[in-house]
Amino acid sequence: MLDYTNDFRTEALMSVMENNFKSSCRQILKSKGVTELSLQLLRKCLKIPEEGIKVETEDGNRLVYLPVIDSSRIDDQNIARIGTYSVFDGKCIFVYYDGTYLTKSEEVIYFLGKNGFKRTTYAVPLSKNEKIFDPKIEKKWSELKR
C-alpha cells in the first residue's frame, strides 16, 4: 500500500506558499499606489507561464522568456519590478502581483499608467517577431487584439 500523505502535505505547503507569495506581492502593489486591473483587462493579456515561453528569433537563436516574478523567482531586483511596465514596438510587459504579463492592447497599456504602474525600460518579449514554439501560447498571443 502506498502512502500519499507526504505528497498531500507537500502540495498543501506549496499552495500556502503560493498564496503567501501573491498576498505579499499584492501588498507591494498597494504600497506603490498601484490599483488592481479588471478581469476584463487581464483577458487581453498573456500571462507568462512559470516554465517560460520558448521562442526562436529571426536569426535562428532559441531562447526562453521567463516571468520576471513567480513564487520561485523572487529577489530584490524582481520585487522592485512589481507594478512596472515596459513598452516596445506596440508590445508591453508588466509585472503584476501574480506574475508577469504580455499584451499588445493599447487599452491595457493606457490603464497600466492610469492605475499607477510605473513605466520603465526593460526587455519586452515577443516584440521582435519571434516564433513561439508552444501552439497553445501562440494561439492565445495571436488572438490578442491591439
What would your notes on this structure say?
The protein has 146 residues and is of the alpha+beta class. It is 38% helix and 21% strand. It has five helices and eight strands; from the N terminus they run ααβββαβββαββα. Strands 1-6-5-4-7 form a five-stranded mixed beta sheet. A three-stranded antiparallel beta sheet has the order 3-2-8. The protein is globular.
Outline the fold blueprint.
Blueprint: H1 5-31, H2 39-42, E1 45-47, E2 53-56, E3 62-65, H3 76-81, E4 84-88, E5 91-96, E6 99-103, H4 106-114, E7 118-119, E8 131-132, H5 135-143
Parallel strand pairs: 4-7
Antiparallel strand pairs: 1-6, 2-3, 2-8, 4-5, 5-6
How would you sum up this structure in a few lines?
The chain has 146 residues and is α+β, with helices and mostly antiparallel strands. It contains 5 helices and 8 strands.
Largest sheet: 5 strands, mixed
H-E order: HHEEEHEEEHEEH
The total tally of domains equals: 1
Radius of gyration: 17 Å
Molecular shape: globular
The assembly state of the depicted protein chains is single chain
- Computed structural class: alpha+beta
Strand content: 15-25%
Number of strands: 8
pLDDT < 50 stretches:
none
Read across the widest sheet, the strand sequence of neighbours is 1-6-5-4-7
What do the pLDDT scores average to? 86
* Helical stretch tally: 5
Report, as a whole number of angstroms, the end-to-end distance.
55 Å
- Helical residues, percent: 25-40%
Descriptors for this entry?
single chain, alpha+beta, 146 residues, 8 strands, 38% helix, 3-stranded antiparallel sheet
